[in-house]
Amino acid sequence: MRDLAAPEVQAMTDADWKKAVVDGVGKMKGIGTLSAPQLENMFAFMRTLKKK
Ligand code: HEM
After folding, report:
1. Using the 8-state DSSP alphabet, how is residue 28 labeled?
2. Angle formed by the axes of helices 36-48 and 14-23, to 10°?
């Protein structure tokens, strides 16, 4: 799977991530729907992966 810590991925906005995860991107299937708290948690987790 994609390296979620990669600079190109970390340069994406929360809106881009929401679209990728909910609708899918390439070979990754979309999950369909996520609640607001689930999205907030996903964005927070994704930001922790950013290399310092
Ligand atoms: C917290 C869980 C996950 C998040 C937030 C996530 C997020 C993303 C994002 C944002 C991208 C797009 C990156 C880009 O545009 O370059 C991506 C791509 C991808 N993800 Fe995930 N992902 C997750 C879990 C998974 C899992 C569990 C798998 C495999 C079973 C997976 C497989 C892939 C693949 C294969 C791609 C590349 C799609 C393509 O370009 O063909 N992802 N993911």
Report:
1. E
2. 110
2 CA distance to ligand 1 middle (Å):
5
Name the phi and psi angles at 46, rounded to 5.
-60, -40
Q: Is 50 within 8 Å of 11 (Cβ atoms)? A: no
| Tens digit of each residue's pLDDT (9 = 90 or more) over 26-37 | 999 999 999 999
Residues 6+ positions from 2 with CB-CB distance below 8 Å: 9, 28
Q: Which H/E stretch holds residue 24?
A: strand 24-25
**Looking at ligand 1, which residue's alpha carbon is closest to its atom 13?**
9
